[in-house]
Write a structure and sequence with these properties.
Structural class: alpha/beta
Number of domains: 3
Distance between the termini: 25 Å
Helix content: 25-40%
Strand content: 15-25%
Number of helices: 16
Strand order of the largest sheet: 1-2-3-11-12-13-14-15
Number of strands: 20
Length: 471
């Protein structure tokens, strides 16, 4: 079983039922819906298609609603134009259509924070400008690195603290849509502090949902508040695209490792994203550097790796998923299993005990009974070599755990009067579904009394002689 999960972003190349089915068969575990593009009807239709295909193939997949956030973009231009090193470019301090003489952005209020000497990046930093002067109506810049400027290109300010909220009016409407349509995860863009996450959670509750939250780390402010953000989030995304524009690009690899490490310690799933197989947008094979990038993210301990342009506009989306699956599978043959972290509370001690016992007994499966998914995440953070089967009784928790490294969710809706009864029901169903076999040794974590969230307090070993009694 491949332990590191694959996230694929849906776009024009992959929105048909035929392509969605091929992607799931190739190994996609989670689909990402980018709400920077497409309307609600577009996303609703694809969501229904995914659920139909998932049921048809009997292959569960999870869904992420990725909010647009306060993405700063140029306003519309009549036509693209070139700028060269040393050219002078002016920005209007009002939101008007752009032209070759005067550019505008969709959030002109941020210019009040701009000073002489600040940098302005356009199109993910491929075009770089430096502020020469700031007047009441305009901001004058000089071009440091030229390129082609066109409509709606992203604009960033790497050395400026921008006082704009992470949740926009559009995001609020999208969150309501996400709650009503039961997305498993909602990803918050441009998180800067824990309050951004808490505000999102309050909106989710306001609309009657309990969707889990992924915080995207792509701002320098977020790095200063990383521990607090991880603490209040349900998962983390290393969003290397905008992060590599907002901080010096040479710092990104070490930042990536630090975010993954901190997420692992906190038992929070973490996704590594952006440009993992970018060359496959146009080519049917990746570069050696891209293969190494994926392998290193896996070795670092990421729970999932993500495809963006590769599966939205790329010419080879299925091939990209297929090669990513192969790279992960090969890398996991050499994975540094059995990590250790401080055990600061009882459930962590139980999880560590289960992993240690499974290692010593060479158990085929670690079976985790969990009401919320919390204990499964605790077990996963120690990165055991044995597959983790998380036994849950709700489809919601089942789908949430699809993102977690090494976890295979297993739904058991039957009620058990006590611990012994529910273990018996699991083993019989697991034997029937070929999750385990008559020669398996399994390690179980469970709570007593059974069914109370947060009650995990016991580790059981079921050896192969005991398993045979259930046949």
């Amino acid at each position: 079983m491949r332990k590191t999960k694959i996230v694929a972003t849906i776009g024009p190349k992959t929105s048909s039922k035929e392509m969605l089915k091929l992607l799931i068969k190739a190994g996609v575990n989670i689909f990402r819906f980018n709400f920077s593009h497409g309307d609600h009807q577009f996303h609703r239709d694809i969501l229904h298609s995914i659920r139909e295909i998932s049921a048809e193939l009997n292959t569960p997949v999870a869904t992420i609603q990725d909010l647009c956030g306060p993405k700063i973009r140029l306003t519309d231009l009549d036509h693209p134009f070139n700028v060269h090193n040393g050219d002078k470019i002016s920005f209007s301090r009002s939101c008007n259509p752009s032209n070759t003489n005067l550019l505008s952005i969709n959030h002109p209020e941020i210019f009040k924070n701009i000073h002489i000497g600040n940098l302005i990046y356009i199109s993910d930093g491929t075009i770089q400008l430096k502020v020469l002067s700031v007047s009441e109506n305009q901001v004058e810049t000089t071009v440091l690195i030229g390129g082609v400027i066109s409509s709606r290109k992203g604009v960033s300010f790497p050395d400026v603290n921008l006082n704009i909220p992470a949740i926009t009016e559009k995001d609020i409407k999208d969150i309501e849509f996400g709650v009503k349509n039961n997305f498993d995860w909602i990803a918050v863009s441009f998180v800067k502090e824990k309050q951004d996450v808490e505000n999102t959670r309050a909106l989710i509750k306001k609309f009657g949902g309990n969707n889990l939250i992924i915080s995207k780390i792509e701002k320098h402010e977020a790095l200063a508040n990383l521990d607090d953000i991880i603490n209040v989030s349900d998962a983390i995304m290393v969003a290397r695209g905008d992060l590599g524009v907002d901080v010096p690009i040479e710092k990104v690899p070490i930042i990536q490792k630090e975010i993954i490490k901190k997420s692992n310690i906190s038992a929070k799933p973490v996704i590594t994203a952006t440009q993992m197989l970018l060359s496959m947008v146009k080519n049917d094979k990746p570069t050696r550097a891209e293969v190494s990038d994926i392998a290193n993210a896996v070795l670092d301990g990421t729970d999932a790796v993500m495809l963006s342009d590769e599966t939205t506009i790329g010419e080879y989306p299925v091939e990209a998923v297929t090669i990513m699956d192969k790279i992960i599978t090969e890398t996991e043959k050499h994975y540094p299993y059995f990590k250790t972290f401080p055990q600061t509370y009882s459930s962590a001690v139980v999880a560590f005990g289960a992993v240690t016992i499974a290692k010593e007994l060479k158990a085929e499966v670690i079976a985790v009974f969990t009401q919320t998914g919390f204990t499964a995440n605790q077990v996963a953070r120690y990165r055991p070599s044995a597959p983790i089967v998380a036994i849950v009784n709700s489809r919601e928790v089942y789908n949430n755990l699809i993102l977690t490294w090494g976890v295979k969710p297993f739904i058991l809706t039957e009620k058990g009067e006590n611990t012994e009864n529910i273990i018996t029901k699991f083993i019989k169903k697991a034997l029937k579904d070929n999750i385990i076999n008559s020669s398996s040794c399994i390690v179980i974590t469970i709570g007593s009394p059974f069914g109370n969230p947060g009650s995990t307090n016991a580790v059981r070993v079921i050896d192969k002689e005991t398993i045979k009694k259930y046949l």
